[in-house]
Specification:
This protein is α/β, with parallel strands linked by helices. The chain is built from twelve helices and eight strands. Strand 2, helix 2 and strand 3 form a beta-alpha-beta unit. The two termini are 19 Å apart. Bound molecules: 1,3-dihydroxyacetonephosphate. The site of 1,3-dihydroxyacetonephosphate has 14 residues, from strand 8.
Length: 250
């Protein structure tokens, strides 16, 4: 049984004061069980986020970390330090990081391993462009991204990890993949995990959909067999909308 996840990704938005205000607004409004509520915030907000999440059902995520624990890597974020601060998850391989910061599948694989070594869990993002979809190359592209991202990672670690399928054409565009399109690709990813590992591992790994998820469409997406949750950008920043998303079962 896979516990559903609603994970916010604030991207480069909110300062520590705004983070605290958000936490105050959602206090007592998250489900105690049945859904895992996660917020991914910029590095500068994580101290506030972790302190505010303590003693609540909220889980916390960084939006990136480096693949070394420490050293002369100016401006990077240490996964070891994130773990020591109490972070639960790190989002890696977001299409914005691949596109603007030139992250490669190899970087993402190294990051995933370092995150797991530090007792946190990676949320590994993948997704195709509109051109790739229109050329009929989306499945090969996405399954290739997954194969590279998980190379050398054990079945037990992958079963605990999270994958997020985010078609690039649906991010921040208001253009959601239809629930059927999302289900189809998430299923393909699960089949890929079954072929790389085994069916049991594939059945345990949670796979999210991301791209213009909002309170109005979350139920339809979550009703799909293989979709285990949402990675939500814009609609996760307003407390009311986030509370509505995590309470989609009510
Ligand atoms: P939107 O929900 O704003 O489309 O962003 C999706 C996303 O990129 C989450 O990581």
């Amino acid at each position: 049984m896979r516990t559903p996840i609603i994970a916010g990704n604030w991207k480069m938005n909110k300062n520590p004061k705004e983070t605290q205000e958000f936490l105050d607004s959602i206090k007592g409004k998250l489900p105690e069980s049945g859904v895992e509520a996660i917020i991914g915030a910029p590095a500068i907000d994580l101290t506030t986020l972790v302190a505010g999440a303590e003693g609540t059902p909220l889980k916390t995520a960084a939006e990136n970390s480096y693949f070394e624990d420490a050293g002369a890597f100016t401006g990077e974020t240490s996964p070891k330090a994130l773990s020591e601060m109490g972070l639960d998850y790190v989002i890696i391989g977001h299409s914005e990081r691949r596109q603007y910061f030139k992250e490669t599948d190899e970087d993402i694989n190294k990051k995933a391993k370092t995150i797991l070594k530090n007792n946190m869990l990676p949320i590994i993002c993948c997704g195709e462009t509109l051109e790739q979809r229109e050329a009929g190359k989306a499945e090969d592209w996405v399954t290739g991204q997954i194969e590279n991202a998980v190379a050398g990672i054990s079945a037990a670690d992958i079963a605990k990890s999270v994958i997020a399928y985010e078609p690039i054409w649906a991010i921040g565009t208001g253009k959601t993949a239809t629930a059927d399109q999302a289900q189809e690709m998430v299923h393909v990813i699960r089949e890929k995990l079954a072929s790389l590992y085994d069916q049991d591992t594939a059945d345990k790994t949670r796979i999210l959909y991301g791209g213009s998820v909002k309170p109005a469409n979350v139920k339809e997406l979550m009703a799909k067999e293989d979709i285990d949750g949402g990675l939500v950008g814009g609609a996760s920043m307003d407390p009311e909308s986030y509370v509505a998303l995590v309470n989609y079962q009510k």
